[in-house]
Predict the 3D structure of the following.
Amino acid sequence: MVRSTLCLAIAVIVTAPVSAQNLLVNPGFDVPDQLTGWTCTTTSGVASWSMVDRLGSPTSGSMQHDVSADADDRSVRCTQCVPIVENDGYIASAWYYWPDDPGVFQTGSTRVTFSFYNDAGCTVNAGGGVGKIAFPVLDTWVHVNSPEGIAPAGSVAAGVFFFTWQYNANEFVRARLDDLDFSTTTIFRDGFESGDIAAWSP
Ligand SMILES: [Ca+2]
């Protein structure tokens, strides 16, 4: 019994997933009344800090997007530019919540996208961008993952974008986002730095 327990313990250690580091700053909105680390732009709306936290924490909040436009297809977008490693894979994800508030429509979407850049300031696009569109589910926190994107050779940074989209003119939409994530999927890298090929199978 002791031996089998030991074997089980070893198996658990060996198979435990490696958690990738979240590259985003302030992904959980722990600074009251601030969107520290985020750059937000809008074409008829506002991004603000909300005291509503995904897990109900009294010391954390979320990011709220309100879009109120008299034209179709308008959005609020918040972004960060983060350093990456070329040829590695990456995934962005978010938790989002569309409140069933009076006067609020659900004719829109939440979008999680990213793209790679050849400069640290995210101005020279290197391609390789991917994204995911997610649709409202009322009064429920929903998790959305982007597909995996592979950083092109020569790229050094990624622009990571979180949108709330209003589809129809005069149909005001509101969403909250929390616990955002942008991490590498590359948990193993052997560029033969060790001077041997021991890590590789024939
Ligand atoms: Ca939070």
Notes: Residues 28-29, 53-54, 60-62, 178 surround calcium ion (CB under 6 Å). Residues 6-14 have pLDDT under 50 and may be disordered. The longest strand covers residues 173-184. The chain is about 5% helix and 40% strand.
